[in-house]
Amino acid sequence: MFQKRSGDDSTYEMSIDDWMYLMDEDTLINRTSMSKLGVEVGQVTLFFRRQAAGASQ
């Protein structure tokens, strides 16, 4: 993956390890680790939950 900063022509190559876990029929967890030269530089964890039919946002 390449990430570009605004106003800069530089690019950076990073390794991405992305996993998704289905916890139950309504909950999904997405966990992503990013590393550069074998050193972890960031993590992102997202939780997705399905709303019941007819529920307002």
Automatic annotation (TrEMBL):
InterPro entries: DUF3833 (IPR024409). This is DUF3833 domain-containing protein. It comes from Pseudomonas koreensis.
